[in-house]
Amino acid sequence: MADKEEPSRLFGLCAFTFVPNNELTENLITELANSIVKYGGQVFQRKRDGSLPLSQVTHIISNTIDFPEYTEATAMMIPVVRSKWISASLAKGKQVQIRPFTPDPRMIFSDVMLSCGDIPPTDKEAIIGATMAMGGMDSENVTKLTTHICALTMDHPKCQLSLLKKTGCKIVLPHWFDDCFKLGKRIDEGPYLLPNPEILRVRPEDNIEPPSSAHLEGATSARPDYLPAPPDTESRPTLTVFNGKKIMLSADLAIRDRLKGIILDLITSGGGELTGNVDECDWFVCQYRDGSEYIRASHLGKSVGNLSWLFYLITHNAWTSPLRRLLHYPIPRDGIPGFKDLRITVSNYGGEARIYLENLITAIGATYTKTMKADNTHLITARDNSEKCEAARDWNINMVNHLWIEESYAKCEMQSMTTGKYVHFPPRTNLGEVIGQTFFDESRLQALYYPGGPEKPTAASIRKRKALEMTDENSFAGGPAEGVVIGRQAHKDFDVMKDTDVEYAEKTTEAFGVPAPQKRRANQAQFTTPARARHVRTGKENETPSTVSSSGRSAKDKALGRLSDLASDIALYEKEKKRGLKDGHGPWGGKRAADFIDREHLNRRSVSSPTAAEENDQESKLEKRPAKKARQSLPDIETRVILTGFKRWVNDKNKEDADRKKLRELGIAVVLDGQPCDYLVAPQLVRTVKFLRNLSKGALVLSSTWIEDCLDTKQVPNPEDYILKDKENEKKFGLKLENSVRKARENKGKLLWNIPIYCTSSIKNGTDSYQAIAEANGALFMVYAARSGITIKPTKPEEDEGGPEPVYLLSTATPEEKKLWKKFEDMARRGNMEPRVVASDWLLDVVMKQEVSFDKKYLVTNFFS
């Protein structure tokens, strides 16, 4: 542990400036400034023009990143920290780490002090790594500073100590960290709190009241109809936000003379002025992202916003960046490419969140519909439980949360719906609580809407352009912390937060759809499923010369390394997790899938479906829409396929998107695993999760050459000519694919009906993939651990005609798993069942052949000998 610094020199060589707001008041600033000077630091005031003296300071104290100089400060690697950093440093007698005190909302755990209880070591390491890398801190012991204890039960001594001393810290299940990291947003801990967590005692489909969101205040529309009244006052106070500023209103706003006169009075009375010269203005207000004035203002580094942003400044009398709220920035005149023909509806959002999504859908270029019918293309929902959600599943309508449309709008391009966070719905959370937290990346706007630079650049425009380039270079390129500045990187290829696409990672493994690690360390962190090894960035952290020790850097690098592994784990988990229905009808396939396809084609041919999930019959009658208007450019979907092991698109997302569009134009839709399909497409026999799950439904298996020929010839050849033939692997697995497909259709997803299959919790490759395969064939799947408390209900010997029924435990031969074998065998025998501890290959071979058989070679004692 580092020695405490000399009190009088605690802030020596440090120079500070403050950014006041409602939380960081002038009185508090004065108090903190006195402490800084007392302990050897310097405090600089703002310049005469109100800007921050960036060239003179080493730290900026601000409880928000919403101030004009933030981008330039991050480009210069000047730490921006909350005011609590000063008090924490004074309390410890040394400068504490900067990362936990960042005001950047993308560091979702920045105020979390975590201590872990009775959770598995690998999950513990992963959770700590994620928490630290996302701004939190870890503590081995529970102290008065501890905010969260992660535990599975209240029996752990840390939980008991917290209750005894009434520390007030929150005791949460690890599921909370898992869900937060999958979404990249911090959701409410309430449903995860021990001793009686809501996610374990309440059904996921039970009602949840839509929450309110402070992030949407004054930002629900890009074109407000009126000027809002000031909050909590009868008359509007004198505005100071316009003091010394020149504002230009663009002609494309098309506002009435009366409203323009009101705005002029407010600006001039507050010390500002209106101008008609874009070169002279400080703020440029327009409606659309086009025109010479918009481009010129953007090139010159002016603050460019729309009328909604201007009204927000007037209402709150405080500056905010127009990039922080999506509908505060000018909208694209023709929307975002790819959204024009989409028909989108909304479910489970209420109040301002629903209004915001309606306006965002319109701004992005899609068509918003109040009710949902079969011709809708997308459903945006805050939960995956509602009438609309059920209808979306039945009609094969894409179902996503609001993060998909927000990030598509913010990044100015349609995001892939296969990304895990867009289809993740925590069981007892309404995602409306995290709506409105996405903001723009200015470098993306620059590249698309005002590339290049002005003919005669000013010093300010050159400085801003350089700041954007440096900020983009110094930031995470992907993952939950995308855009957070981390320090200059020597090699962009080694960006620790940049996830590689896991869509077709199955090709790297011979077992099934989990990638084989590349010489993975034995103690590398895991979370739910194994991760691939990653390159870890070795550049500097966002630090000051006088604060961070080598041990501090080492701890951060380790945390970032663990977070890298966790990001891959979660992405893979999202790709391969079971997406079965929750309506109790069992797995898809057979007659139900065929009926679904017929019903959907029928719905698409009707202008109005009598079974549409309408929220309001009257609204439905009033709604007039030309039949199939949104579908004119695309043919009906004739064929749905699921791809696995397809190599054409590996590491080339742009080619994948382009090819998917080509296939769609041919009437072929590539659907997600778990959805009904006509064909399963693979290059050869593979034991991936996708292959085995869809083989179990009786899907006809085609060679991936069929897709290749469709793309190359722009025609759809007869699929029957491309039935997969793989003699080599058929011989290897001891089967004939034709027979497996025939048997699967006969089994109708009940090959393993009611057969109990247990799986050790620490089995190689994780339990989720095995669970998906087993349950697709009707098995009773359970995870078996030392403290699982699982028992087998005893049966009477006379009930077991022909001998006891077998019960299986999937396991490997690690010392940890070997300890479970005897306990499992004793449990099975007490239940009058025959225990069989087998290698996972037994399940894979049974499902591949579509017949239940057993050979002693699969027993772990033989298989791993």
What can be said about this structure in brief?
With 865 residues, this protein is an alpha/beta fold. The chain contains 27 helices and 24 strands.
Question: What secondary-structure arrangement, pairings included, does this model have?
Answer:
Elements: E1 15-19, H1 26-38, E2 42-43, E3 59-62, H2 70-75, E4 80-81, H3 84-92, E5 113-116, H4 121-133, E6 137-138, E7 148-150, H5 157-165, E8 170-172, H6 174-183, H7 198-201, E9 246-249, H8 257-269, E10 273-274, E11 283-285, H9 292-299, E12 303-305, H10 307-316, E13 343-347, H11 352-364, E14 367-368, E15 378-381, H12 387-395, E16 398-400, H13 402-411, H14 442-449, H15 459-473, H16 550-576, H17 590-604, H18 617-622, E17 639-643, H19 653-665, E18 668-670, E19 679-682, H20 689-695, E20 700-703, H21 705-713, H22 727-733, H23 737-747, E21 756-760, H24 768-776, E22 780-784, E23 806-810, H25 815-830, E24 834-838, H26 841-849, H27 860-863
Parallel strand pairs: 1-2, 1-3, 3-4, 5-6, 5-7, 7-8, 9-10, 9-11, 11-12, 13-14, 13-15, 15-16, 17-18, 17-19, 19-20, 21-22, 21-23, 23-24
Helix pairs in contact: 4-6, 4-16, 11-13, 20-24
